[in-house]
Structure formats: C-alpha cells, structure tokens
Amino acid sequence: MKKLNFRKIKNKLLLLFVFLLAFTFLQTGADINIQADTPYKTYTIDGYGYVTETQTAYLPYETIIKIGDESLNAPTDFTVLSDGSYYVLDSGNKRIIASDANNNLIKTFGEGVLQNPKGMYVAEDKTCYVADRDARSIFVFDEAGNLTATYGRPTEAMYGETQDFLPLKIVANQYGTMYVICESNTNGMVQISPVEGGTFLGYFGTNSTTAGLWNIIWRAVLTDAQRAKMVGNIPSTPDNMAIDDKGIIYTVTRGEGKESLKRLNIAGVNMISPDKTDDVPVAVATGNHDNVFVASQQGYIYEYNNEGDLLFVFGGSDDGQQRIGLSTKIEAIQVGNDDKIYVLDSDKAQIQVYVPTEFTNQLHDALYLFSKGRYEESMEPLSEVLKMNNLFDYANMAMGRALYKEGEYKQSLEYAELAKDLDGYSDSFWEVRNSWLKKHLGSVIVIVFILIVAFYVILIVDAKTGLLNGLRSLGSRLGAKKLIHELSYLFYYIKHPINACYEVKFHNRVSVASANILVAIFTVFFIINKYFCGFLVKQVREGSYDILSDIGTIILVLLIVVGCNYLMCTINEGEGKLKAIYCGFIYSAGPYLVLMPIIFALSHVVTYNEIFFVQFGYFLMGCWIVALEFITVKELNDYSVKDTIKIILLTAFTILIVLLLAFIIYVLWSQVFDFISSLIGEVVYRIGN
C-alpha cells in the first residue's frame, strides 16, 4: 500500500487556506470600495410618518472643480440647460463661466460689469439674467455674453418709496418676465416685465404671517411704546426659488415649517404641502418627472413627488475629510435632462454630480406615468421597484392607487394596507364593501328576519311551556354568587351612579376582588382595541406589540390617580375610604366596557365617510366616564360641586408633582448608575494591570 505524503497534503491545505483568505479579503475590499463610494445613507418616510432607511437612490458620480482650465472662486449660482451645457456664476471672480456638456470652457463674460453677483438664471435661448446685490441691478446678457439690458430699482409708487432694491436671486419665464428675491424685502418676490425698459408688475408669492393666541393677548395689554419695542410680526423673505417649464414658481424659505417649500400658481397660491421639510432649506430645483428637489444648509437633499410626498433624503455635511457626495455650503441645485443632480458648493468651489440608481430610475418612470394618468403602464415599473424593495411604502401606495383606477379593488386594498395609505384604503374598502353588499344584502336581511321571528316564537313557546325555565334557574344561581353579583353591579353603577356610590360607601356592595377583575377586563379590551382595531383608526405599527408595557402603564396610571386623589381627599376632610375610592374609580369606567365593543366593531366596517361614528363613540364614552368620575368623587366624599372641582384640580396638580419627582429620581439614579459602572470599570482595569 502506498504511504500518504502528509507534508504534501499539509502544503496543499495551506495553499487552499491562503487562497480562501485572499478571496475573502478581495470580497471584503470590494464591499469597502462600494461603501466608500457612498458616504451617506438614504432615507424615506414610511406610512406611519417615520424616517426610515432605504436603498441608495443616488450615487456620487463626479466632482467638477474646474471648467476647462478655469477654477471657481466662491460660486453662488448656476444653471444646467437641456443640451447639457451649464453656466456658473463665479461670484468671487465677478464673472459668468459657460461650459459645454463635456466640461469644456465655452466663454466667460460679465467682467467689468458685475460687482457682487448673487443669483443667476439662464433661459433655454441662453439669455442670462444676473442679480447683482451691490450694483442694485439686474443685468441681462445675450448668448454671446454681451450686456443687453440693465434693470434698476422700480420707480413705481407701488414698490414702496423707502424700499431698497438689493437683488439676490432671479428666475424668468418664457416671456421674459423676471421674478426677483430681494434682501430685506418682505413683501414677496419682485415681478418685473421687460416692457418699456422694465415695468414693475407687483409683488408675488408673499409669505404669510402667523400670530399665536398668547402674542395676540400680550399685544392687546401692552402700550403703544411697548409694542413698538417688540419684534414685528412680518413675513419672511424667500431664500431661493426655481421655475419649471410651465412657468410654475417654487420657493424655499427657512423656518417656515411645512410652508418652507411652496409651489405657486399664477395667482401666487401654494399648491403643495410636503410631509417632511428641512428647517434650513437653501435651494430648490424641479425634476423631469413632476418631482422637486430641495437642498438644505446641512448638505441634505430632499426629493418630493408633485403632491409633496417625500421620496428620498440623502447626502450630508462634510466633516472636513473632503469625501465625494458630502457638502459644506450648498448654494444651488439643478437637475439635468439625464436625471443627474448637480449641487453647487461655494465653500469647496465645486459642483458635485449624483447619478440615480436603477431603483430610482424605475420609480421615476412609474411616478411620471402615474402623474399623467397612465395607471396601467405605471404598474410595470412599480412591480420592478417592489421586486427590489417590497417595503418601499411609496411604491406600494402608487401600486394600490393604480390598481384602484383599474378597478382591482381587492388588490388595491392590500397594497394600501402595506403602504399605510389611509385615503387609498378607504376608497378601496368602500368599493369592496359595496360589492359585498350588492351580493349578500338580500341574504343578510332574510337571516335577520328569520332570527327576529325565531326570537318571538321562542318567547311565545316559553310563555306556554316554560321552555327557558332551566336557563332562568341557572342565571339565578349564578347571580346569587357574590363575585358575579358584584361584577354585574357595574351596569347599575353606570345607570344610577348616585345611588350606587351610596351603596359602595355604606354597604360594601362591591369588593377589591371584583374591581381587580374589572381592571383585568379593561386591560384586555384596551389591548385588543389597540392592536386589532380597524386599519383606519389604528395608531400603532402593524406587527408591533408591547403588551407588557401597556399592562404596566395601565396599572401605574391607576395607582397614581387613585393614590393622589385619596391623598387630596384625606387632606380636605373627604369621607371616602381608600377601598371605596379605588372601587368607585374602576366602576366609573364602566362605559368603556359597554361602548368599546361597539366602537371596535364599527372601526372594521367604516370608511373615512363614516369615521365620524367611531369618533363620536370615543367622545361619548369619554364624556360619560368623566361625568361618572366626577359624581363618584363628589358622592363618596360628600363634597359640594365647588369642592369637587377643587379636589380634581388638586389631584391633577399632585399627579404632576409625582411625575416630576419620578423624573428627577430617574435622572439622579442614572447618574449614580453611570458613576458606579465607571468606578467598577476603573477598578477592573487597575487590577488587570
């Protein structure tokens, strides 16, 4: 027999191990390179309104730091045209640089004319409009770069006699009408027609002002001199704007909440309400698929559809490592015909370019087709999007609505539920319910009629033969049991609370055991309604359960409320004992057991058109419980109405104090725990060394 050569086997195994190690390293290295190319995460908004991470929507493509051999110096604006050429407002050098699609220098112009240019807009015919703050003028250059017109401060009285003209940003429509954002002009955008050397047409898109109730009251009690020293309630000046090929104006304004992004029609009325905005937007651009992009001061880029639904958030602030895709100070954003996104960074003096991924391209195709009413065509790209990410809520929502338009209501209902699209779910459920009623309403009526007839027949037979005597006897025996009798007392309590309180106070008609059982039943009802109610009224994430926390919260709230109320009643000479107050509070919540099953059932069969019935059910239940609790406190302690109100207010105040003390103790204990942990860690470290 031939002997095995263990040395050769060992060498081969070693070689195989090295090969596998190298292969693993190369694979890891490839993954690291991919991650290095994308130094940021991409987020979207899910159906519950939470920001959640999603697939990468745009990849950093390139960084433009020179145009030809020309470097940029503090650029503040630029425009990308449909042929791929672009113009950059090189503000630090007081000029405009024109480039072709391949980043070859075409020309520079504006030297010797521009003083402190801040904004620029280039029309498709390559007419260039420049807003120059220090020159207090709008300069217009033709395609060759020749100055053709200059517009200064409007002379019309409507402009304002003391209003300065400090133009910062500008766009123009196809007729040459200019829209100008001016520094410190809170009246809105200045609208100038090129007719007759420049005609002031008025202000456009003025931001609204809001005054809170407290400010209104405060101003009403102040003197004129004091009001003069307060900060005026004046509208904000827009920070930037864009115009689409239809002449629709988009503006961004910092600190305006949902009004920070506006889409203004010809009358200056806002037509968009985004579901998530940035506090400090600095630039806006329109896309090719009825979408809009907003860049923030922190370097984030937001993409919305035409209704204001947030599709993606990506990008971020550069921490000084000069990583591609991250920004320092964004000045402008543009979108090319190829869907590439161009972002101008004045601090870095460069233009960063992002390219959409296949996932985003498919979504854009679907978005565009859907917005044009081509619902059946939109389903194919939507299906591709969902193959890549079946949890992308916007795609599920769009698919559901497309199916609804095609009459596929059951499938639409499923997608709407996946996307948490309440409006789409309601519309689809309406159609599904109507279809079911048309098929089964007759059968339901017949069954109900038969049940009613059978009920009365049984009553007649029982009257003659005593058919139900056995059931009545069983009911009597069960009712005679003390615990069951105490539990059934709940229905008497909610109908006759004054008499019931007297019985609880002086005759011990209920016990702590029965009250505890009711608490358990209340808890079960609460959990069932919280997690299994109808889709349109559910307030928790699908599949998210925190039952132990719910039980603990209910018990803790009950103990705090009862304890604080008993404390206040004892201090204020109340007659109620702790047992009576505890049982009274629980039995006063009886309407919850009576109405919640009805509300729960309604939540599964109503659409938004009938949601009022569910809301009214909650309102009625709340009012009923509050009234019973008020009567309970009053009767158990023999208070007047005035004293009862005082005790309730004192109880609420005591609860706040208890919660504050609990918070302070929690913070202090956290600090003690951290100190002990660090101390133990230090001891272990020293022992180890």
Question: Would you mind describing this structure in some detail?
Answer:
It is a single chain. With 689 residues, the chain is of the alpha+beta class. The protein has three domains: 365 residues, Neuraminidase (6 Propeller); 101 residues, Serine Threonine Protein Phosphatase 5, Tetratricopeptide repeat, CATH 1.25.40; 192 residues, no CATH class. It is 47% helix and 19% strand. It is built from 17 helices and 27 strands. The strands form eight sheets. The chain has a four-stranded antiparallel β-sheet. A four-stranded antiparallel β-sheet has the order 6-7-8-9, with no helix packed on it. Strands 10-11-12-13 form a four-stranded antiparallel β-sheet, with no helix packed on it. Helix 10 runs antiparallel to helix 11, helix 12 runs parallel beside helix 14 and helix 13 packs across helix 14. About 3% of the residues have low confidence.
Features:
alpha+beta, 689 residues, Serine Threonine Protein Phosphatase 5, Tetratricopeptide repeat, 47% helix, 3 domains, 19% strand, 4-stranded antiparallel sheet, Neuraminidase
Oligomer: single chain
**Secondary-structure arrangement, i.e. CATH architecture of the largest domain:** 6 Propeller
The count of strands amounts to: 27
Which class of the largest domain in CATH terms?
A: Mainly Beta
Please list the strands of the largest sheet in the order they lie side by side. Answer: 3-27-26-25
CATH topology of the largest domain: Neuraminidase
What gyration radius follows from the Cα positions, in whole Å?
A: 36 Å
CATH level 4 superfamily of the largest domain: TolB, C-terminal domain
**Helix-residue proportion:** 40-55%
Sheet with the most strands, sense and barrel status: 4 strands, antiparallel
CA distance, first residue to last residue: 58 Å
Mean pLDDT equals 86
How much beta, percentage-wise?
15-25%
Uncertain runs: 13-36
